[in-house]
Structures are given as structure tokens and as C-alpha cells.
User: Which sequence fits this backbone?
């Protein structure tokens, strides 16, 4: 990006005197910010700052972190209000509004704010640089000023001294420079949050040597303490009104585990070998070879395979590669990892994946620090889920979700399966029709959805039958990254679109052979599967069991549980109203007692009076909260239950 000089900053400020974002990047810090972006610190050593952050108390680190994000969010919200005002003045004309924003200097202000965000993430350290790398791919969510600036974090994080890197290599491998390499370039070709990469020559071959920064474990310890506290708070404060028991602590534990695994370069090398073996027969996926004689816990030496980043559409075109094909192959390679191998890349951002001209556009995977696996049970469950979506019933899908661990085994499946039937039918209809819905069609579809399954949505939200398996947080993150990168290469890109035929092929070959799958499908339709024949043979026994069950019901030995959703809602609302009333009465009681004690002629201990006021205030807050819950519940019922919205 263009260096932020004080002259450019002053001219921008003069043009936008009422700016809310520009003050965040003051002229006195402009040169330091520019130097940090290039890794040529002018009195600002990023490594030294991270070292100080590592030694700083966790409380101060937390204050610094949240103060930065609050400052940024406030400025961005104010800027968005000004953009919205211009759109209103332009009468909704997007082109006219964009021209007005450019003339008013709002785009320049957002570029300054993007610089502030990127430099702030760099100052906060590796944990937050990882966050910036993910955000840089979301071209469909963030304005281009942010994605362009945050893209720098993928491989242009300020590096550390090359002599220091060489010293780390010699200490780790126990040999001198001349014994290890024929040549070693002290200038890194790429710098990332956890380390940097140097070019070297070894036995006449070019290699890439990845060297880890010092002190990462200590820095992670501080940041992860803060993030664990956030996970605990989310677990306590999350109302789980969407029916999902998210279990934030296991998600955090899984994230922390993978983050620590990422700084074990020997583990990364083994992951690269597994990944290469998985794609051995694929000509458009390349995994560089690992040189184990020059690899340790903090040094990784691999084959040098140059390429352009997966978000560089112009670079691909210059090589004669179709960006749309690269987008499709990125999606297909990830689906293969997830559904066939069960061993997948958690961080496929453009800094970790490149493209060259081999095979019309070959994907080159560089970084294998963040890898995860799906257990055979979960992997089978995913395939069963997709099979059920294409060819099965809502019950098949729910069984697959239970196998994966998404549905609680003890959950009431009636409402879940009804919702499932509705959405399966809707999904299959959309796949058949294709195309985008108009605004009116979407509104009509929402009204139909609420009329059909509104009551069941409320029941599911109350029961909280869903779990959030920790490993799926990385699956969603990777899909988010791929969706963002894909849209940058091809505006029409949708991962679901390429997944449809690809997954259907996978489902058809589910049994290992298309012929076997076809035969089993025919058996299922004709009722000639082994389990169908077994069911016919054991039918008399089942009839006898049904007869004995009916007899138990008649004799009162068996009770049937019937759910009446209207009654359940009524009871739940009554409980909330009673709680609000009870807290209100107790609050009034203690407030009266406090008034009596305050105005009594006799001497009253101050502690007793204060205690009464405190209990009255606490109960008043509880009563107010309970009243808000009643209001929220009534709004939900009005929206979701048919005949009331």
C-alpha cells in the first residue's frame, strides 16, 4: 500500500476537517506506521514490542487489546453513518453515492482507518495477526479498503533480523552456516505472524527455510488467558436462543491446542508428508518436499516451489491460468480433504496457498501448521448427512447429525425432524430451480416458513438439543476463507454450487463403486436389502412386542408423554411472569424496610439499612430482567407462531 506520509495525511485532513477516523492515525505516527509495514522500523522494533507484551501483566494486555478494538469500532460506526447519510442524499443511487463519498473524502478516511487497524493488529502480536489474515479474505463482508490492507498480513508482517534468524538455525541444528547451506539469503522472502522464510541453496537445489520467532509460547500464554476468559463469559452469557449449546470452552481448548501445534515445526513437517500422500494422484495439488536433515522444532526446510497467491487474479491471467478454475479447484481440494481424507487444512488463506501454471493452474500448499482431523465416526456421519440430503429422509439426516455429535442423543426428535423435512424439501427445490430469489420471493418464503414450522422453531430453541463440536469451528473458518477468496477470483463463485455435483458424485460412490451403490439403491427401493428381509422374518416377534406394550398401557404400567406446545409456552410464560412478580414484591418489601429504618426515631445500624437498600436494588434489577424476558418471549411467539404475526 502507499506509504502514509505526513504531507498526504495533512492534505487528507484538510479535505475532511470533520473526520472521525483520521485522528486515529496522527501525523506524528505516520512515518513509524509506514516503516512498520515495510519491516524497516524507524525507532520502532516490532519484535521488541512483542517481547515487552510477552512480559506485560495479563490485565494490562487485556486493557490494551479491548481499548484498541473499542476505538476502532467507534470510528468505523461513525464513518458508516456518514456513508448512509450520503446514500440517502443520493436517493439510493449507489453510483452517485460512491462519487459523493469520494469527493467528501470518506474513502480516504476509510483507507486511513484500515491502516490503523492493520498496524494495531501487528502491534498486538501473532494471535491478532491471525485474526487479520482471516478478515483479509472476506471481500463479500468488509469494504475493499480493509481487505486490501489486511492482505499485507498474509506474508508481509514485519520480520526480524536475518542474522538473528541464522543464529536460531545454527543453534537448533547444531551446525554452522557453511555446513548447512551452500548459500543463505539473509533477507526473508516472506514474513508471517509466527516466523519468516529465507531462501537458501543446498546441494545445488533451492530450498525455503522457515524460522520461528523467539518467545512465542510466552506471548500465546498471555493472549490465550484473555481469550479463555472470554470463552467462559460466552458460556455463561450465551442465551442459546437458537437451540444450539455452543460450548465455547471446548472450542477455545481446540483452538489453543492447534495454535501450540502450529509452533511445532516437526509436527508440521509430518503433516506435510501426510497431506502429500493423500494427494499423490492429483496433478493440480503440489506439496513441497520436507528436508528432515535440516528440520527441528523451530526450523523447517522444504523444497522451494514459487507461485502467485490465490487472490492474485491478474497474476494468474499473466501466467495463462483461469482464476475461475483456480477458485473451483480450491473448493474441490478442500471438500476432498474434508470428506475423503478426514485430514484438512484449517488455514487456507492466500498466504498459505499459491498457484503456478502447471496443469492449467496447480495449487501449492506451503503451510501445514494448522491441520485438524475428523474422527472416522464424524467423517462417516458427514457422508451420511450429505447422502441423506440428496437421497434420504429427514430422519436419515437427523441420524447422521446425531452420529456427528450435533444433535443430543436424548433430544426430542419430533420437532427437529419436522423442521428437517421442511428445509430438506426447500433445499432440494432450490437445487432444482437454481438462480437467485427476488426480495418479494424471499419475503413470501419467510412467511411460509414461519406459518409451517414456527411453533417447532420455538420448541427447539427452548430444548437446546444441538451441540457445537469444536473441530467444526475450523471447518467453518476454512469455508469462510475459501468463499472470500473464491468471490475475489470469480464474482459468481459459490462453494455450495461446486459442492453439489462433487458431493453427489461422492455419494454415488459411497460404497466404493458406482455399480455397488446402484445395486444397493435398487435393493432399498424394492425392499430387498438384508435388513428388509430380516425385518420381514422378525415381524411376528415385533407384533408380539407391540401387543405386550399395549397391554402394559391398559394396565397402567406404561405412561405416554405427550407434548402440547401451546401449554408448554403458557407454563413457561407463567414461570417468567411469576419470577418478575416475586422479585418485584421482594424488592418493594426491602425498599419499605429500608425507608422505615431510615426514618425511624430510634438509632438504626447503618449496615442494616444499607443491606436492605442493596437487596432491594438487586431484586429490582432481577425483576426488570425477568420482565424483559417476558417481553422477548412474547415477541418471539408473535413472530414464529402462525396466526399471530
Assistant:
Amino acid at each position: 500500500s502507499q506509504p502514509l506520509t505526513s504531507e498526504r495525511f495533512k492534505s487528507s485532513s484538510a479535505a475532511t476537517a470533520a473526520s472521525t477516523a483520521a485522528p486515529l492515525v496522527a501525523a506524528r505516527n505516520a512515518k513509524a506506521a509506514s516503516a512498520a509495514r515495510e519491516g524497516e522500523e524507524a525507532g520502532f522494533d516490532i519484535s521488541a514490542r512483542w517481547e515487552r507484551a510477552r512480559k506485560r501483566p495479563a490485565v494490562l494486555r487485556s486493557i490494551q487489546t479491548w481499548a484498541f478494538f473499542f476505538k476502532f469500532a467507534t470510528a468505523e460506526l461513525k464513518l458508516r453513518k456518514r456513508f448512509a447519510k450520503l446514500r440517502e442524499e443520493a436517493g439510493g443511487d449507489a453510483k452517485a453515492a460512491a462519487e459523493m463519498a469520494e469527493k467528501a473524502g470518506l474513502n480516504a478516511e476509510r483507507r486511513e482507518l484500515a491502516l490503523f487497524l492493520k498496524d494495531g493488529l501487528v502491534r498486538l502480536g501473532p494471535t491478532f495477526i491471525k485474526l487479520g489474515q482471516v478478515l483479509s479474505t472476506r471481500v463479500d463482508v468488509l469494504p475493499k479498503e480493509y481487505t486490501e490492507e489486511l492482505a499485507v498480513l498474509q506474508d508481509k508482517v514485519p520480520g526480524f533480523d536475518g542474522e538473528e534468524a541464522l543464529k536460531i538455525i545454527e543453534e537448533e541444528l547444531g551446525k554452522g552456516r557453511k555446513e548447512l547451506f551452500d548459500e543463505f539469503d539473509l533477507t526473508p522472502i516472506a514474513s508471517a505472524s509466527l516466523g519468516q522464510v529465507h531462501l537458501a541453496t543446498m546441494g545445488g537445489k533451492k530450498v525455503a527455510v522457515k524460522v520461528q520467532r523467539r518467545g512465542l509460547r510466552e506471548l500465546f500464554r498471555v493472549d490465550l488467558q484473555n481469550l479463555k476468559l472470554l470463552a467462559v463469559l460466552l458460556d455463561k452469557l450465551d442465551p442459546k436462543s437458537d437451540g444450539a449449546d455452543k460450548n465455547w470452552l471446548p472450542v477455545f481448548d481446540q483452538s489453543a491446542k492447534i495454535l501450540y501445534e502450529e509452533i511445532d515445526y516437526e509436527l508440521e513437517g509430518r503433516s506435510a508428508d501426510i497431506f502429500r500422500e493423500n494427494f499423490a494422484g492429483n496433478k493440480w495439488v503440489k506439496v513441497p518436499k520436507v528436508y528432515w536433515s535440516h528440520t527441528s522444532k523451530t526450523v523447517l526446510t522444504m523444497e522451494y516451489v514459487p507461485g502467485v497467491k490465490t487472490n492474485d487474479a491478474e497474476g494468474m491471467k499473466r501466467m495463462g491460468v483461469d482464476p475461475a478454475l483456480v477458485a473451483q479447484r480450491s473448493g474441490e481440494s478442500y471438500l476432498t480433504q474434508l470428506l475423503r481424507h478426514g485430514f484438512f487444512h484449517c488455514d487456507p488463506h492466500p498466504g498459505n496457498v499459491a498457484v503456478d501454471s502447471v496443469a492449467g493452474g496447480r495449487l501449492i500448499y506451503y503451510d501445514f501448521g494448522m491441520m485438524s482431523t475428523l474422527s472416522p465416526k464424524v467423517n462417516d456421519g458427514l457422508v451420511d448427512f450429505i447422502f441423506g440430503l440428496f437421497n434420504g429422509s429427514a430422519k436419515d439426516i437427523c441420524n447422521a447429525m446425531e452420529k456427528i455429535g450435533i444433535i443430543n442423543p436424548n433430544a426430542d426428535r419430533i420437532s427437529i425432524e419436522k423442521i428437517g423435512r421442511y428445509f430438506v424439501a426447500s433445499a432440494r427445490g432450490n437445487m432444482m430451480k437454481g438462480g437467485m430469489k427476488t426480495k418479494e420471493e424471499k419475503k413470501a418464503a419467510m412467511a411460509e416458513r414461519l406459518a409451517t414450522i414456527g411453533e417447532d422453531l420455538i420448541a427447539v430453541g427452548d430444548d437446546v438439543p444441538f451441540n457445537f463440536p469444536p473441530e467444526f469451528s475450523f471447518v467453518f473458518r476454512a469455508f469462510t476463507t475459501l468463499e472470500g477468496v473464491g468471490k475475489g477470483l470469480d464474482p459468481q463463485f459459490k462453494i455450495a454450487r461446486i459442492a453439489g455435483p462433487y458431493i453427489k458424485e461422492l455419494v454415488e460412490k459411497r460404497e466404493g463403486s458406482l455399480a455397488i451403490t446402484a445395486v444397493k439403491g435398487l435393493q432399498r427401493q424394492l425392499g430387498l436389502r438384508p435388513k428388509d428381509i430380516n425385518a420381514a422374518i422378525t415381524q411376528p416377534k415385533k407384533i408380539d412386542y407391540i401387543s405386550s406394550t399395549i397391554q402394559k398401557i391398559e394396565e397402567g404400567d406404561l405412561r405416554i408423554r405427550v407434548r402440547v406446545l401451546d401449554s408448554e409456552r403458557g407454563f413457561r410464560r407463567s414461570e417468567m411472569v411469576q419470577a418478575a412478580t416475586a422479585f418485584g414484591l421482594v424488592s418493594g418489601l426491602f425498599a419499605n424496610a429500608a425507608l422505615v429504618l431510615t426514618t425511624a426515631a430510634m438509632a438504626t445500624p447503618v449496615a442494616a439499612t444499607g443491606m436492605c437498600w442493596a437487596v432491594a436494588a438487586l431484586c429490582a434489577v432481577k425483576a426488570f430482567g425477568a420482565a424483559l424476558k417476558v417481553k422477548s418471549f412474547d415477541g418471539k411467539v408473535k413472530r414464529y407462531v402462525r396466526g399471530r404475526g
Q: What stands out?
A: The first helix runs from residue 6 to 15. The CA atoms of residues 12 and 108 lie 7 Å apart. The mean pLDDT is 75. The first strand starts at residue 183 and ends at 184.
